[in-house]
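Q: I have 320 residues here and want to know how they pack in 3D. Can you give me a structure?
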Amino acid sequence: MHNDFDLIAVGAGPAGLSVGIYGGRFGISTLVIGETLGGLAAEAVLVENYPGVESCRGMTLVEKMRDQCDSVGAEILLGERVDSISVDSRPFRVNTAEAEYRAGALVLATGCRHRELGVPGEKEFYGRGVSYCAVCDGMFFKGRRVVVIGGGNSAAMEALYLKEIAGKVFMVHRRKSLRADRIMKRRVENSRVELLWQRRVKKIVGEDRVEGVVLEDVETGEVEDLDVDGVFISVGETPSTGYAVKGGIETDDTGFVKVDRDQQTNVPGVYAAGDVTGGVRQIGVAVGEGITAATNAYLQVSGGYYGERKATYVGETYEF
């Protein structure tokens, strides 16, 4: 693989793959770099709210996006972790443990990572009963007792998926009702999932593996033990912006990358798209932001829709 491109997308989730599809269709050399394919979208048990797709698994959808990238000539590099970016001058530089890649425009589509509860036992039992992905680990708990922590759509989907595998599924939420949308609420409430309202996890306990959780009533402070073999945590996400911030990209007070209506960051030619920008974190939004970012990146490196001033990498500079 060569190292110089017109456009690089960092992240291979729906936003990054959309950048690949549109960069390829525009005819500019495009690279999509990601540690894994699909990001959190690939973990989705079921995608039912993406326009035009009645129902499919998250991985199925992102695999179709990857195939589209291939069909238009965008290159995809998986399994490499980006260590740093340099955006103080063009060409922008993206550094991994293996190589340095250069481009005239850059799209940050690094998404989010699972938010942790921050309770005793969470880190100690990770991979030994604590999980953040039911699709990834659910089959290890066939016929066993599990608890899902959270109350949004993702937590609801995790619980509904696990009820077909586990012997007993509990769902713990701090409030009196789920934050999930109406359809997901109804499905959970009409299922065999046992809902434990107004409780929070104080700690996860066990010897070599998870054996239970200690719950606290948020109103009375009463503490109770719940015997389970698995704990699935689904309490939101935190933006993956570490090296972007170090590279000089501005974020808001909550850590999400700040962008304008063109998806451009504070650095001209550097864009951001998808969950890493905050807002409504949905696959459809990530795709739209990726398309917007790719289109404006194309206009920057090509000088317009007809490419009158196409930028070319020459030596150590990017000439327009």
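Q: Anything worth noting?
A: The helical segments are 14-26, 58-72, 134-137, 153-162, 182-189, 242-246, 283-302. DSSP finds seven helices and 19 strands in the chain.
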